[in-house]
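It would be a great kindness if you could assist me with a short task in structural biology. The full record is reproduced below for your convenience:
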Amino acid sequence: MKRCPACGQTKLVSEFYKNRATKDGFAGECKTCRRTYKQVYHRRPDVRIKVHHRHALRIYWLRLWIITILTDGTMLCNVCRKPESNGNSLSCHHRHGDGTAHRMECGGHYAIKYWRSILDSGCNKKLYQALCNSCHIS
């Protein structure tokens, strides 16, 4: 038995989500209160924008970090050596043509898991390269 501070009711521990970070191994609020809070919280448009914005920023900074490593800090295309500009953005590409399978395995190009996997591999220059749009197409 555990008391939920949000609704004040004492409930069975099966009515609480598991949380390994707490002493008893369960979340502080019961499932019903947590669900209600999430529904109200995520219904607000400003919150949805913040959550999406935070995710997009995280991907942007991971991508930037990876491309900086792959270009040795120069931010130049690995093939034509042109800098990143408005019409010519750099992106990370697989050298051996297995990029599509890797992206799909990780949940797509905009999934954090995809960028983390590249970073966790040490941004291996034998596997990945930073290319501009022009070099990638040709």
